[in-house]
Design brief:
- It is a single chain.
- By secondary structure, this protein is an all-alpha fold.
- It has one domain.
- Helix content is 83%, strand content 0%.
- α14 packs antiparallel against α15.
- The two termini are 36 Å apart.
């Protein structure tokens, strides 16, 4: 599969897998770890508790986007361009901006406290602090990606995944309090990211020119604005289901999307490999073969979708026997796999800092997608949300190819 995907994306994933043992093990551990946590929580927690836990995790993802979340992309591009010491400046800048995220999180916590929901109020406080810490020091992985040090990423990802499994599952043997689970899940991520950052951060602190700092800080700001739109769209489904239908239904919806999201996550990993390479390519080289490679990736994803639809009933009956009703929803969610081909033009736009095109895609896609999700939730419940999410992914893909092709045509000419 690695060789095939290498040809599709024109990226030497063998470079990523030159320490093949570490890469393979880290990927297996990452997927198995996420599934293990989900299987354990889904089978040991009541549906309402599991749904509330997932809601708090989703809420944390939304809260952190207000703290200059685009610094990850900026750090990756700066490092790939040779400015390794930018990591220090970027992280310190994000620490200051995270005060806005803390404010947003505490306002939400105050809202729930006023309305008498102490669990959600305290949960918001917990996710606000832990998610912000984790998100800020996550930049160390962007630094590694910029240097294309995939072997170290694999090793640290393995350590991080094992830590998250232990910290999340262990509390279940003493209590089923969801706050302990949230602390274990997010706290272990934050601790690992902080330790990795201070242990592996570059020793050199060369002063970068004002022009370089301004250039990549602008990249971070633009990426952060786009992240606000994209994250709100990505997490809107969980928020809508929890608020409009209930925590039990969110548990079912979450289980239905666990495997599809893990599979789509592997395409995102490929996307993270493409971006550093695209930064060094000229636009003509990027465009050459784009349609052919995209079509091949689309066909591959279609085959994967068919295989998933055929196999998933057995998997869910074995690992999620209490969530058999989620099987059909999961099969529908898998129909979005081919839309992953849209990662190639999006990476090309990011690499060349074509901001207007990216804004158009994110804003138009977000507005249309949220409208579809709201309509689907009100009309057909979690079935409507699932179908709406699939449609929204194809909308983003169509927008990405349309904007990239038009932009690249004008630049090449």
């Amino acid at each position: 599969m690695i060789t095939y995907l290498s040809k599709l994306a024109r990226v030497n994933i063998r470079h990523y897998a030159k320490a093949g043992f570490w890469v393979s093990v880290s990927q297996v551990i990452s997927i198995a770890g996420a599934l293990l946590i989900s299987v354990v929580l889904a089978n040991l927690l009541p549906e309402n508790e599991f749904g509330t836990y997932r809601y708090l995790i989703s809420l944390g993802s939304i809260i952190v986007i207000f703290g200059l979340s685009g610094m990850t992309q900026s750090t990756l591009q700066a490092t790939a361009s040779g400015y390794r010491s930018y990591l220090h400046f970027g992280t310190n800048t994000q620490l200051r901006w995270s005060l806005l995220s803390y404010s947003v999180g505490l306002v939400i916590a105050a809202y729930y406290l006023i309305n008498g929901d102490f669990v959600l109020s305290l949960g918001c406080v917990v996710v606000t602090f832990l998610a912000n810490i984790s998100n800020t020091y996550q930049n160390i992985f962007a630094y590694f990606e910029g240097r294309q040090n995939q072997r170290l990423i694999a090793k640290l990802s393995l350590i991080k995944t094992v830590s998250i499994i232990i910290a999340t599952v262990l509390p279940l043997f003493f209590s089923q309090n969801i706050l302990f689970l949230v602390i274990g899940f997010l706290g272990s991520q934050a601790l690992c990211n902080v330790l990795f950052f201070f242990f592996y951060k570059p020793k050199d602190t060369d002063d970068l020119s004002a022009g370089v700092l301004k250039k990549f800080t602008n990249v971070a700001k633009h990426a952060s604005v786009r992240n606000i739109f994209s994250t709100l769209t990505t997490k809107a489904d969980s928020i809508l289901v929890f608020q409009q239908i209930g925590s039990k239904e969110l548990a079912i919806y979450t289980i239905a999307n666990i495997l599809p999201e893990q599979i789509k996550g592997q395409f995102k990993n490929l996307s993270r490999l493409v971006l550093p390479r695209y930064v060094t390519y000229n636009e003509k080289d990027i465009r050459t073969g784009m349609l052919q490679k995209s079509f091949s990736l689309f066909i591959f994803s279609c085959g994967l979708t068919i295989a998933y639809i055929l196999c998933v009933p057995l998997v869910y009956k074995v690992f999620f026997p209490s969530y058999v009703s989620a099987i059909v929803l999961s099969q529908i969610a898998a129909l979005a796999f081919p839309a992953s081909a849209g990662m190639l033009p999006m990476n090309a736009l990011q690499a060349k800092n074509l901001e207007r095109e990216q804004y158009n895609i994110i804003i138009i896609g977000s507005v249309v997608s949220i409208g579809i999700l709201v309509a689907g939730t009100v009309t057909y419940g979690i079935l409507g949300v699932t179908i709406g999410k699939v449609i929204s992914r194809y909308i983003y893909t169509i927008l990405a190819y349309g904007h990239y092709w038009r932009a690249s045509s004008s630049h090449i000419q």
